[in-house]
Amino acid sequence: MPRIWDLHCHLLGVEGRTPEERMTSLLSYASRLGIERLCVYMGMQFLHQPGPDDLKQQNDDVIAALSHYHDRAFGFCYVSGEHVEASLREIDRCIENGPMVGIKLWVAKRAEDEALDAIVARAIKHQALIFQHTWVKSDGTQLPGESTPEGLAALARRFPQGNFVCGHSGGTWEVGIRAVRDLPNVSVETAGFDPTAGMVEMAVRELGPERVLFGSDAGGRSFGSQLAKVLGADISEVDKALILSGNLRRLLSPIVRAKGMRFD
Prior knowledge:
By secondary structure, the chain is an alpha/beta fold. The chain has a single domain (4-258), classed as Metal-dependent hydrolases (TIM Barrel, Alpha-Beta Barrel), CATH 3.20.20. The protein has helices spanning 19-32, 52-66, 84-96, 117-125, 149-158, 173-179, 199-207, 223-231, 237-258; strands spanning 4-10, 35-41, 73-79, 102-105, 129-133, 164-167, 186-189, 212-213. Strands 1-2-3-4-5-6-7-8 form an eight-stranded parallel beta sheet, sandwiched between helices.
């Protein structure tokens, strides 16, 4: 069995009264399936339009969740293009002077909006991995400020020196994979949508196995159903090992080593 690192986890949807209790629960489930490490985003609730105080609280929740589990989990700093200065302060607090290794962009501003440029530039300065939620919705339920893979592609073209992740492969993954195909600094991740035969195979075929990352979106999704996308894919065992942990280890290696954090 290859090593497994999960790029995409939340404290929401997991039992526990505190971030620490929820992290304990999340890791107990992950351990049953041999998942070694988790990346955790956002706090005890989801807010579509977080203010500066909300961003700080959400990141404080993650820092608390990591407090006893630095050997099992990484944190990503939640930021918003609606509050650029507050987001820059959070990056400095949580990444430059704290334990986090990436940023999480959700909604509020679309990825193509130049309001995100200062945030992305600060993240790149600290060698942080940049995760952008993307979802293509055909039923008219797109959230205000919700990004698409095409929007992320525009952002990644402005910052070729950054490392970006197309969250959920765009949800409608056939569209998402093609939208970022010509951008070597963008990887796709497998989290969130229903397990569907052919998704991982298409991503490997179109992007190469080095640009596909395993994520679950737990506790909104189960570890098992999301792992099945990769473990059941008709690809080589070498490619599966890259997707399940090798690629994420490579992308996080610069910032983790610069911080002197444990990596094994």
